[in-house]
């Protein structure tokens, strides 16, 4: 075996004073050799961080004012382009761009200049680049950047929408507008049913603008309009409210009211008429058009009311007579009739209904016709003759007479009247204002205009008939009769009998 050198340590190095031990020089550690590797590692890490920082900053600087990868504007790829490059590329595409919108009978071609549009490259591209953060490029590199909306927004600000809406408005002026589903009366079926909606040919301006925006955003040159771009109805036949309205309407048209006066039918409220009054309100409820219903009732009341109206008839002796005025006749109670019709329609009532009247006549033959029966007194002012007919229409009494002086003040009034309560004897008193001008006692007083004008005996008259009434012998308005004839008539006529006084 070989020997290793031994280093001796002086005795003073040991405080204990113990024996001296040899030391193995080869096993002693060296502090300098341990520090050198650690220092090398630190330098390497620092260099790497510096390099990464330089790379990060360099890439960030590169993408400042430049588009990230996967950047598009419509179909145009602007990836890695600088602001000026992107402006130039987009300007080239847009300068030659023309949008054609066609379909459903509509045609429109628009260029940027046609629509008053312009491409502000600096502003548009600036907006696009503002969406990108170059200092976040490690995250931005893998993300898609679609900047189409920035371009579309700029175009919309310039008038594309206005140009499209103007064109659609002109087109729609002669197009067929859509029609909502509704309910309608089917005459053949005699009932209400749902009428389906109709789309028509008018375009939905909002839909066309949206399609133009979408095409422009992708820089597509063609938009094809389909039925989906047409104006749509707002109410469709599937709306459950329409089915309910049909049921309501069919209940109303179930009404059938036959309106009569003195047994004569003057009107009928039936399905065909009620159907004209049914409409839909804003909530799609079937409701009555009360204005139309009221107008119909007003017209019927006016036609059927005869008081004071002109009537024409032929007297038993063949003379044709036309008379108007007076207080006799039928006067329809319009308010009560309106209530009957409204209630009847809403409940679907059927049956015969007498038209309510405040006054009634003894017969009814329609507007303009004779509305009294066979029994009546006929005073013919032109003939100065009076005739009385009984219930069978037979002439049972007649006499010449003298009527009022035709001076506009004492004329005997024409018209149709009722005979008021007769009296025998009676004193007739005449006034001129508050001044009494005569007081005459008669034996037979038969008034028909209030208690002021009537028939009575007049023994002071020299004769009767002819033209005496306008030759100074006319009365103050009454119908003067020979005393004997007045007595006969008094025995025949009754209060409530019809008096017709005419020329």
TrEMBL record:
It comes from the Bacteria. Keywords: Cell shape, Cell wall biogenesis/degradation, Membrane, Peptidoglycan synthesis, Transferase, Transmembrane, Transmembrane helix. The keyword Transferase applies. This is L,D-TPase catalytic domain-containing protein. The active site is at 456 (proton donor/acceptor), 478 (nucleophile). GO terms for cellular component: extracellular region. It holds the Pfam family YkuD. Residues 375-501 form the L,D-TPase catalytic domain. One of its GO terms (molecular function) is transferase activity. InterPro entries: LD-transpeptidase, LD_TPept-like_central_sf, LD_TPept_cat_dom, Transpep_catalytic_dom, YoaR-like_PG-bd. The keyword Flavoprotein does not apply. Pathway: Cell wall biogenesis; peptidoglycan biosynthesis. It comes from Rubneribacter badeniensis. GO terms for biological process: cell wall organization; peptidoglycan-protein cross-linking; regulation of cell shape. The chain crosses the membrane at residues 40-63.
């Amino acid at each position: 075996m070989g020997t290793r050198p031994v280093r001796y340590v002086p005795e003073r190095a040991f405080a204990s004073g113990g024996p001296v031990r040899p030391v193995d020089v080869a096993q002693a550690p060296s502090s300098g050799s341990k520090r050198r590797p650690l220092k090398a590692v630190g330098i390497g890490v620092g260099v790497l961080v510096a390099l990464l920082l330089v790379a990060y900053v360099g890439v960030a600087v590169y993408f400042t004012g430049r588009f990230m990868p996967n950047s598009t504007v419509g179909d145009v790829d602007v990836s890695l382009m600088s602001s000026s490059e992107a402006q130039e590329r987009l300007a080239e595409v847009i300068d030659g761009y023309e949008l054609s919108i066609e379909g459903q009978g509509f045609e429109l071609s628009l260029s940027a200049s046609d629509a008053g549009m312009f491409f502000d490259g600096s502003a548009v591209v600036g907006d696009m680049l503002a969406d990108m953060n170059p200092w976040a490029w490690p995250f931005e590199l893998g993300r898609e950047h679609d900047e189409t909306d920035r371009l579309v927004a700029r175009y919309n600000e310039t008038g594309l929408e206005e140009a499209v809406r103007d064109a659609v408005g002109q087109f729609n002026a002669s197009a067929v507008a859509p029609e909502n589903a509704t309910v309608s009366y089917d005459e053949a079926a005699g009932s209400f049913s749902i009428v389906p909606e109709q789309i028509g040919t008018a375009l939905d301006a909002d839909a066309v603008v949206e399609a133009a925006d979408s095409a422009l955003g992708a820089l597509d040159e063609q938009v094809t309009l389909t039925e989906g771009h047409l104006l749509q109805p707002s109410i469709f036949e599937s709306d459950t409210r329409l089915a309910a309205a049909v049921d309501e309407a069919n209940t109303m048209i179930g009404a059938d009211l036959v309106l009569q006066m003195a047994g004569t039918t003057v009107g009928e409220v039936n399905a065909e008429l009620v159907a004209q009054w049914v409409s839909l309100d804003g909530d799609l409820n079937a409701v009555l058009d009360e204005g139309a219903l009221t107008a119909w009732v007003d017209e019927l009341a006016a036609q059927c009311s005869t008081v004071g109206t002109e009537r024409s008839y032929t007297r038993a002796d063949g003379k044709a007579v036309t008379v108007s005025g007076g207080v006799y006749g039928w006067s329809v109670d319009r308010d009560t009739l309106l209530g009957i019709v409204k209630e009847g329609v809403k409940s679907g009532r059927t049956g015969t209904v007498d038209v309510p009247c405040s006054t009634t006549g003894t017969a009814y033959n329609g507007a303009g016709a004779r509305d009294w029966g066979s029994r009546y007194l006929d005073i013919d002012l032109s003939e100065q003759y009076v005739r009385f007919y009984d219930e069978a229409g037979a002439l049972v009494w007649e006499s010449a007479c003298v009527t009022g002086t035709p001076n506009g003040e004492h004329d005997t009034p024409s018209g149709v009247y009722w005979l008021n309560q007769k009296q025998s004897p009676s004193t007739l008193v005449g006034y001129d204002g508050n001044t009494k001008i005569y007081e005459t006692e008669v034996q037979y007083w038969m008034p028909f205009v209030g208690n002021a004008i009537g028939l009575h005996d007049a023994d002071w008259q020299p004769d009767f008939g002819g033209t005496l009434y306008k030759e100074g012998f006319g009365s103050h308005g009454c119908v003067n009769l020979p005393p004997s004839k007045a007595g006969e008539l008094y025995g025949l006529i009754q209060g409530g009998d019809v008096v017709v006084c005419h020329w």
